[in-house]
Amino acid sequence: MYLIVIAWLYVVVLMAVAEATSTTDSVLGALITFALYGALPLSIVIYILGTPGRRRKIRAREVQERQMHERTVAAQAASQASAQPDAGSHAPGAAAGPATLPVREEA
After folding, report:
1. 17 with 30: CB under 8 angstroms?
2. Distance between first and last Cα of the chain
3. From the CA atom positions of the chain, what is the Rg in Å?
4. What is the DSSP string of 69-93?
5. Most buried of 1, 34, 62, 91, CB within 10 angstroms?
6. Could you read off the pLDDT of 14-37 as tens digits, one per residue?
7. Is the Cα dihedral 16, 17, 20, 25 positive or negative?
């Protein structure tokens, strides 16, 4: 990709120099030639040719973030699984319910 850019810039610089040193043209024309034939088209071409690389970097970053998130979730699950089952301050016992059984009234 960079070889194309360097070759294109070489041609454009030579065009601009030829225009600047010509007896009928001016330095302003050379600057406009460099900008319109060199800088503007090359910036567009470099942006378009760089798109696959930018996409690869974005996808690699997303994969890395996903792996870090999965590691964090796995570490949290492992720390919760290794906790003592009755580590609270309450005594273990039966299920919570009324202390006395209800008595039916006779009709």
Report:
1. yes
2. 97
3. 38
4. HHHHHHHHHHHHHTS-TT-SSSPP-
5. 34
6. 999 999 998 888 899 999 999 999
7. negative
